[in-house]
Amino acid sequence: MPASSGSKQPLARLADPKHTPAAVQRLGERVFVTIKLRRIPLGEIELAFFNRDIAARLGYECLEGFEAMEPLACEAFGLEVDERGSHLAWVDRQEDPLGIAMSGNQGSGRAAYVGRSINLKGIGRTPLALAPRDSDHGHGYVDIVDAAWECVASDLFYFDSSFGTSPTLALLRRRQPRWITTEYESAEVETAIVARVDNGALDRPTHLFVPGAELRASLLDMTRAFARQEAEKFTLGVVHGAFSAGNISVHGHILDMDTVRSVLGRHPQYSRTARYTSNSFGLEWRGALRILESLAASERNNPDKLSIEVISSVFHREYELTLAKTSLLSFGVPKQNIERVVAICPDDVQFLVSEFKALAQLAFPDLSALFTGWVGAPRVEVFDFSHFLRHYHRLRQAALDVEARVMGGLKLLRRSEPRFEVVGNARMSKEVEDHVRQRHMVEDFSQLVALEQRARAFILRFDGFCSKVERASLLDSESVIDRTYVINEERFYSSGYGQWWVENLLEARRQGDLGKENLNRCIEAMTRANRRLSGNQRYGLGTTTDMRVFKQGVVGRLVSGAGKYCYFHEPFAENLEPTAIRVNGSALRLSGKVSSDGRVWVSEQLSMMDMPEQAQFELLCGATPIALEDYYNTQPSIPFALVPA
Q1: Number of Cβ atoms within 10 Å of the Cβ of 143
Q2: Rounded to an integer, what distance in angstroms lies between the CA atom of residue 523 and that of residue 228?
Q3: Are strands 111-114 and 118-121 parallel, antiparallel or unpaired?
Q4: Which superkingdom, per the lineage (predicted)?
């Protein structure tokens, strides 16, 4: 039986067209045009994903079971443009003086506000879509792959960033593909509707330029918010990939995330285009400053007549402050102790954060490997700080000799083989190539030797810093091992690998090889696999990490927080009952079902100090391996590799 929703807000009320959107009150009626929507019959759409964790955090209705949620979500959010429809929606005008964000449109070309706080994307062409119908920004629909990807990316920012986003609550899949012609191709495309929650996160700089807009935003507050986002993206390891005044809110939220990718390494990388430096990881702050410059040129948005020099100074100061705080979190300092650590060790913090940023941005000169969409691209970062920070505290406790710790730390940092031959990239503009090669590429052995001396100095300083912070009782030597192992795991499922997996899942659904409930489970598992800072406590046994998602279920590790971990398996098929997990050739018995619904199996507890860096394993049912289909074979670039039977 479905659980009672209690006092939680019903989904139908969220998108009730009888209610005027809160955005209209914030921005002013002159920003909007109204349109009519029709309710899509339930036979034409299905629920592809509903984010229960976001619904629970926001206090929205969330019934137990997929079958109970599907009609509610489809009824609430299954709307599309139809002048004969009976449901009122509001479409926002936008203007961009930079000429980047709107693609020829006068505002939202495929999205509208309904109810108090819901924005539906992919509803069809709106009156503000002036781009040609045969263009990506003119037909009014959202490709389901991009829509599903937005679910994955928005969850990452909602749970793991302080700047946040407009969270994606639900994804509806149209059962029939549409024939769509663009400037690139004509094809049948599966489309979707994305239901986003708007509590002010969709108020954009492009709204500030609309005549009659009532929205006001402090230019200095925006400057600080933009800077905080850029600094935090560096430590999170994510690139937006397509900066514009329409892809960020006036409060610093990140928006429109089909180009978002997690990066492997922290050197410059791009997800969509390599034509502009400001679309590369670690360099997107340049685009943020361009947006602020356009706002500063507007008398309405800059009544104090602040110069771009003042704005730039405020931006960089806020960037450095935020980078220090978020870097310390990655270093293992508990959030509540960061301010005290900065006060006690200011010189150490400044040195370590500066060197972390400088050394992490270096790469060997294979320009083709800078595209995040190349699944299986060679790792080209010179120093892998995610790997170092994930494992160094274990090494530090295991090795009493400082020199042994330094040598071990260098091995953790230097995982990529040196490759000094320059490999070109036809997609990359000369501007980007010149910048990257001059400032971020290591092209000869003598450079590498000098950089390894800097890396050695970093490790020595970091080791001493940790000792100081421990003596001040601001860093616990036991819990820091667990915390840094979880926080510094690379986000596999929001990288190019994750995009590949989303495409495979949706193709399996289209072919009928994957049921809609298991599609929902797979996307849900992907979102949870990406979380590092919150929302990944599971099963009452600890924090999930190293998760891998299959059509049949999920496997991974659970870190207890007390120096212990175990392996877990959550099958999607009720009749799939594994008896053991074979890890690197040794079998670990599975000790029964532990979750409230009796679906999760776990191994015995193991010591974090003895955890293998790379675990190759199979699930066993008796003596027979359970096939882990549709997944990669072992790759050196994947620290937690699963071997298909």
Answers
A1: 17
A2: 29
A3: antiparallel
A4: Bacteria
Q: What is the pLDDT of residue 624?
A: 61
Phi and psi at 4, nearest 5°, equal: -70, 140
Are 308 and 293 in contact by the 8 Å Cβ rule? The answer is yes
Q: What is the chain's alpha carbon radius of gyration, rounded to the nearest angstrom?
A: 25
> Virtual CA dihedral for 463, 529, 239, 98, nearest 10 degrees?
-140
Q: Which residue has the higher pLDDT, 591 or 91?
A: 91
Q: What is the pTM of this model?
A: 0.93
Mean pLDDT of 586-612: 79
* Residue 114 CB contacts under 8 Å (≥ 6 apart), including other chains: 15, 16, 17, 21, 37, 79, 87, 88, 89, 90, 120
Q: What is residue 270's three-state secondary structure?
A: strand
* Helices then strands, each counted (H, E), the chain: 18, 23
381 token code pair: 């970062």
SS3 readout for 173-206: EECCCEEEECCCCEEEECEEEEEEECCCCCCCHH
Distance CA(93)–CA(166), nearest Å, equals 18
> Residues 203, 215: contact at Cβ < 8 Å?
yes
CA–CA separation, 157 and 155 (whole Å) = 6
Question: Where exactly are the structural domains of the chain?
Answer: 11-207, 219-490, 493-626
Q: At what angle do helices 66-77 and 516-530 cross, to 10 degrees?
A: 90
**Is 226 in contact with 291 (CB distance < 8 Å)?**
yes
Q: What is the pLDDT of residues 373-411, one digit of tens each?
A: 998 899 999 999 999 999 999 999 987 899 999 999 999
Alpha carbon distance 128, 108 (integer Å)? 6
Residue 1 has pLDDT above 50, yes or no: no
Instruction: Tell me the C-alpha distance between 235 and 317, whole Å.
Output: 17
Residue 169 in 3-state DSSP? Answer: strand
